[in-house]
Amino acid sequence: MKLDPFYPPPSDQIFPDDAKQHLDAGVLLIDVREPDEFAQARIPGAVLIPMSELNQRADEISRDREVIIYCRSGNRSRQVVDAFRQQRGYTNLLNLEGGIIAWYDRGHPVDTQPVEASYQTSLYEELDVIKAKNRLASNRSLLVDVREPDEFTAGHLPDAVNFPLNTLPAHLDELREASAVLLVCNTGNRSAIAANWLIQQGLTAVTNIEGGTVAWIQNGFTIER
Fold it and tell me: Which of 69, 71, 132, 182 is catalytic?
């Protein structure tokens, strides 16, 4: 998800004190962090939709009333608000600036009671980097890095092609021609979004590499620059 630099800056930020008033009035709050983060601590009343599931579950996000989106620090939620605004036409989403950290710093309540939170069942395959490396060595899967070009240039998996996440629709015909598609990003979040979207377009042999390029490097595997 990338913000178009020529797109007018949105007036869609909200700060913790104002957000608290909105929530007390019944505004929907969506947490886009990972399930393990949500399970540890969350803003009371928040609904969990991990960033990697957003495309698949977009119909759960109302267009008709205000919705506040938050994450740990406001960065992931900013990507979500910008992408949904630009690509899907949403005008009702507000990003909680500073995320749950700023919320807590302002003295607002945080729910730390243990809860079970998990991903919805994925329709695509997920492999850790060791299994992904073996897969790449044994077949002709198309390896697609969905990060931005500067990230790709800084270091990527061997033989990967770079189709940034926001350009995937333009490459859909190429992706359909591949016998199988392996997706990778930095940590596995953006590539999971890509995997969900490709499944929705009718592709079936789609695999997300868990842990992404970070895990690949941590395992001592070769990267190209």
Answer: 71
